[in-house]
Amino acid sequence: MVAELGSLRPDDVTVLDMEASIEHLTRGTVRDVEKLLIVTEPYFRSLETLGRTVPLARELGLADLY
Question: E-assigned strands of 1-66?
């Protein structure tokens, strides 16, 4: 997979389905994504996590949040 990532063209689209956690934001592993789609469940704990996710994403400079 890593070899394939090195051969991506600028117009290629890659979708990453990541674990439900803010770890990807706190470690900065999504720093270079162009768009971030955040899907959550309608439960209090999930919405709490969403409340932390959006500010962290903005701190990393991610502008296109959905």
Answer: 35-36, 64-65
- Could you tell me the mean pLDDT of each successive run of 10 residues in the chain, 66 residues long? 65 77 81 84 90 89 88
Report the largest interatomic distance among the alpha carbons of the chain, rounded to a whole angstrom.
41
Record the pTM. 0.68
Radius of gyration of the chain (CA): 13
**Containing structural domain, residue 23:** 2-65
Phi, psi of 22 (to 5 degrees): -95, 5
